[in-house]
Amino acid sequence: MKLYKEVFMPRILSAIYLLIALLTLFALTSGHAQASGGPARTVTMAAGPYIVDINLYQDPPYTDQPLQLTVVPHDSSLQLSGQIIAQPGLGTDAVPLHAKLTAIGDKTGTLRGSVSMPVHGAWQIVIQLDGPRGAGSATVPVVVGAPGAMPEWLAWLIGSSPLLFIAVWIWQQHRYRRALLANKQ
Fold first, then answer.
1. In sequence order, what are the residues at sequence separation of 6 or more whose Cβ sits closer than 8 angstroms to the Cβ of residue 134?
2. What is the pTM of this model?
3. Per the CATH hierarchy, to which homologous superfamily does domain 41-144 belong?
């Protein structure tokens, strides 16, 4: 009995505390695929006479959250203008959305824009460009997802709460056993 009290019970409690700490750390550091520094997805396409990189900053995009994108021409001397058209795909009950592309203040010819799609499902992001070589367009398919029903941290908190109750139950059983042994002696 003394071996159990001195060796096994502290190890069991330490393991439970470590498990709770690791689950808490994992829950706080988990996240979805949203790029914080760079683009989440880059697509190189020909938009008529222009070769451009289309950078999407969220993959997959979610409903009612703006999808930020940039259009970077391979020929940085081109001064382009254009617009974004988000067209719903098959089975997506929505209307086409339009947004303007604006030039970033640098000399690279980069254009920036955002579009917020209100319905989840398949969409076609059409980039229409105008420049010195004429007009052109490129299409990028995306699937817009629905956001989660609750925040991730709350889901982890609810999901890991039984572990806390199990740890408290084990601790109470340990105290109860100690009290029984103390009364026996």
1. 48, 49
2. 0.64
3. Immunoglobulins (2.60.40.10)
